[in-house]
Amino acid sequence: MHMDHGATSSGTLAGVGMSRRQLLSGTAAVAIVPAFTSILSHRAEGKMTTLSTPQATFAELQVNGRQHQLALDSRTSLLDVLRENLHLTGTKKGCDHGQCGACTVLVGGRRVLSCLTLAASVREPVTTIEGLRDAKGGLHPMQQAFIDHDAFQCGYCTPGQILSAVACVHEGHADTPDSIREYMSGNLCRCAAYPNIVAAVQQAKPEMTNV
Ligand code: FES
Ligand code: FES
After folding, report:
1. CATH class, 132-209 region
2. Most CB within 10 Å of its CB: which of 34, 47, 68, 180?
């Protein structure tokens, strides 16, 4: 896995401009620190109700070898930070409820569902599909195996499938087709490329000695 340690993302904290899309979608929960210290009030059934908005949380994330300093609404998911703030859109949002696996990334080498992971809670390095490499900086053996076996059609689930498959091998759960199927069962594929995915994992496994 290629890691360019020490590089620093400039502008992540300073460049807190909110795009119209982010504003409308409500996903730009990161940045704009002062907004989170405000108090909102509204009327409900004739009574005045006061709601406190959450305080901003400062977090430091290492993603694909780059350090990022962020001011976050503490409720922000890792998935939204990756896609909306760091613009790493290879990580896909499928269900956003922990049920499809499309958002799978590696945190400290372990697979996690980024839609269910609070970004502020992440302490270990994050690897997304954009950061996956072989030892020489080329395609990771799992990426190459997915290509070789046509293990995708629309490709929407593929980044999550590949990262999950890498972890599946490292966990020692890729010894047999049945084991691969069982331990990859959290990653759904609407195109039903499952036989090809199993074949790809079997091809990549012996090639993953150093990555
Ligand atoms: Fe995270 Fe579906 S988007 S599991
Ligand atoms: Fe289309 Fe898996 S390749 S959802």
Report:
1. mainly alpha
2. 180
117-167 confidence digits (pLDDT tens):
999 999 999 999 999 999 898 999 999 999 999 999 999 999 999 999 999
- Mutate which of 100, 152, 185 for ligand 2 pocket (most atoms within 8 A of beta carbon): 152
> For the whole prediction, is pTM greater than 0.85?
no
Domain ranges within the chain, ordered by starting residue: 1-46, 132-209
Report DSSP letters for 127-186, one per residue. E-GGG---TTSS--HHHHHHHHTT--SS-TTHHHHHHHHHHHHHTT--SSHHHHHHHTTT
C-alpha of residue 158 to centroid of ligand 1, in Å = 13
